[in-house]
Amino acid sequence: DGNAGILQGIDPDANTYKNCFPDVTTDWYAKYVCYAKEQEWVAGYSDNTFKPEQTVNKAEATKMIVNSYAIANTDEPSSEFNDVATNDWFFGFVTSLEEKGIIDHDTSYYSPSNGMTRGLTAEYIFRVLVSQSTTALVYTEEDRATFLRDAGLSDLLVGVPYIKSVLYDGEVAQ
């Protein structure tokens, strides 16, 4: 299973996974980046670099999530976002998450070149895990509640304001 490592936690061998990009050699993150490259979760840039010091934008993060969780591309892709065109390299990745209800449509713009916050990345991953744990084709808040209850985590929701969605800048709407 291509995403078993993510679900179980992985610790790639630093002696095996290194020097996969000219700018990813033996730094602390090299083993993770090189493992992700081997799994084809990341590919780097056209100049064969990874740019590890650069902020990951929303398009790049979406690609990594789709690839690492082996989310199938939609059969008839279309996007409701005005800034996601069919000829964009990230079109298929965004539409895959749109179709599955992972991405909210609180606005008509996805802003693919904006940085992706850790909070929004975590929310997308959580929604993917929830959707993969059900037979539903589209993520819903009901699936979220069922997932938390089945995992014995429903107490986390007691006294917590209902979260309507995570906005694109990572803020929470209640």
Report on the architecture of this protein.
The chain has 174 residues and is an all-alpha fold. Helices cover 34% and strands 2% of the residues. Strands 1-2 form a two-stranded antiparallel ribbon. Helix 3 packs across helix 4 (91-99). The radius of gyration is 17 Å and the shape is globular. Residues 1-7 and 161-170 have low confidence and may be disordered.
Layout of strands and helices, then pairs:
Blueprint lengths: L3 H5 L21 H9 L19 H11 L22 H9 L18 H15 L8 H10 L14 E2 L5 E2 L1
Antiparallel strand pairs: 1-2
Helix pairs in contact: 3-4
- Given helix and strand content, the structural type is mainly alpha
What general outline do the C-alpha atoms trace? globular
How much of the sequence lies in strands comes to under 5%
Note the total helix count.
6
Strand order in the sheet with the most strands: 1-2
Give the SSE string: HHHHHHEE
Residue share in helix: 25-40%
Radius of gyration: 17 Å
User: End-to-end span in angstroms?
Assistant: 36 Å
Short structural description:
Helices cover 34% and strands 2% of the residues.
Salient structural properties:
2 strands, two-stranded antiparallel sheet, single chain, mainly alpha, 174 residues, disordered N terminus
